[in-house]
Amino acid sequence: MFFKQIFGSASVVFIYLTCVGASQSVWCTQEENKTKASERQADIQSADNRQPATESGDDDFQDFMKANLRIEKTPRGLPKIDPTGDDTQAMERINLGRRLFFDKNLSADQSTSCATCHQPQLGFSNAEAKPTGVAGKIGRRNPPTLVNRAYGKINFWDGRVETLEDQALEPIENPLEFGNTIENVLELLRQDENYVTAFANAFDDGITRRNLAAAIASFERTLLSGDSRIDRFVTAEGLTLTKSERQGLWIYESKGGCWKCHTGKTYTDESFHNTGVSWGVEPLDLGRYEFSKSDEHKGQFKTPTLRDVALTAPYMHDGSIRTLEEVIEFYDRGGTPNPHLDHRIKPLELSAKEKGDLVAFLKALTGRHSWDPPENSN
Ligand code: HEC
Ligand code: HEC
Known about the structure:
The chain is mostly helical and 378 residues long. It is 33% helix and 1% strand.
């Protein structure tokens, strides 16, 4: 398994270039999804007599991020990507970005790093509904996963920032996250010999605001989650799903209508919808409207990916739903009625068994990652 090899040769730093042009669409179109749905049903039915698969892995995560990250190829099931580009300094940037990501000194009171709210073993999210940042301050929204943001088109629940580079500096100055200033952080980095060297190796012009953002974003683009049980089933790699997981996959693609927004290989359309989560609950969060001031955006939030979703509880922009079972109940009710509810959200009338199947499907979307400890990666 190539994940094992990564850990067997942690000192070897090598990125295999499997780039397809950035202009190529990475999203399955809705038409493609419809065709796939009918093929998949036949697949699912013919697979009924296969052996049920065993549950994979345990949660025994270590301080694995210290190992050098090597991406040999895009994990199965994801659109081909090259997180580094054809650039010899790329690996230096990624390693530097990783170090910054885990460095609590970037926060005003040395209490908080990016990883405080984006923890690797929790799918780069956080177990708190609203996260705790600098000086014990409580954030306003639930930290989303950072996996597969390399494919992302827009960031934050309300889409107020486009690129990962633009996003990366925001937490530093956010009074509820790092509560610091970029100038302070740059000064701190200039006083640390290791950082001075690392920046000099990664960039031609050393420690700058732009390079700080670029290093963090480069690291984030390596956080790929694929090769889940669903991917191995769908790509006919011989892995079987349990009957319940297969039925769940089918409901996702048919009566559940989940694919309409959790689209394609990344399980998100990177677009905004009102599903009514916490509609009318104080303090009001009107989502995309707060940033666009356009009425049609009221209560719209970005569709989160479903990959690794079993790791990222609690759920939704405000962490108001604790479990996947409760998420399915929410959709089964048809979300929360409100004047701006997305037309795709309707009561589903799922049976208890169908609800359990959908949950089993969601759990089978947990991927294998380059940062998993070796015992988890067979
Ligand atoms: C105190 C907790 C906290 C810290 C610290 C934090 N984040 Fe976040 N992060 C969040 C929350 C909450 C959101 C969602 C905010 C929103 O959408 O308004 C978020 C959103 C993001 C997103 C957008 C993801 C998406 O799918 O839209 C990225 C990328 C991100 N954070 C990266 C980082 C990086 C890099 C750092 C360190 C420089 C960092 N975060 C530090 C809590 C945190
Ligand atoms: C109309 C588009 C749409 C449809 C259809 C849809 N979702 Fe969602 N989903 C969203 C949006 C938008 C959010 C975030 C809502 C929020 O936080 O306010 C979300 C959130 C979620 C979450 C929480 C993920 C997280 O990280 O917090 C899960 C799980 C989920 N959806 C599963 C499903 C399932 C299963 C179905 C089918 C039964 C489904 N969705 C149908 C748009 C949709």
